[in-house]
Amino acid sequence: xxxxxxxxxxxxxxxxFGANIAKYEIxxxxxxxxxxWKEEGEEEYFLWVMDIDMSILYDMKLxxxxxxxxxxxxxxxxxxxxxxxxxxxxxxGWNDIYAQQNINYLCxxxxxxxxxxxxxxxxxxxxxxxNFENNNS
Length: 137
Description:
- The protein has about 140 residues and is of the alpha+beta class.
- The protein has one domain (about 5-130).
- About 40% of the residues lie in helices and about 25% in strands.
- The strands form 2 sheets. A 5-stranded antiparallel beta sheet has the order 1-2-3-6-7. Strands 4-5-8 form a 3-stranded mixed beta sheet, with no helix packed on it.
- A hairpin with a 2-residue loop joins strand 1 and strand 2 (about 30-35).
- The radius of gyration is 15 Å and the shape is globular.
- About 25% of the residues are buried.
């Protein structure tokens, strides 16, 4: 397991929410760390249990970067329909089926977040996750 791509993906994913990773640790199938908020100057713990095929992380990182660079995300919501996003990805060379798979994987990611380490480990917290504005693509 390549820790660099794991860190790069998690960093890109959390950037969608305006968060920076201040500190992190990768062990077994988990990424645990502290984020700081660009705007508020506050810290929060996060925990991601990696329950996906690690081979897709690079392309999911590219998808996160694309959403951010093209201002297609607002808080936790992709601001265009799934059909429109697939079309945009197709325009930059992504196969439609592969784009759909990566969108599905990205929308399945849930990263626990909380004020204390105990909160995130016990899943008594909120989560970072991405979705579409409406489910009617």
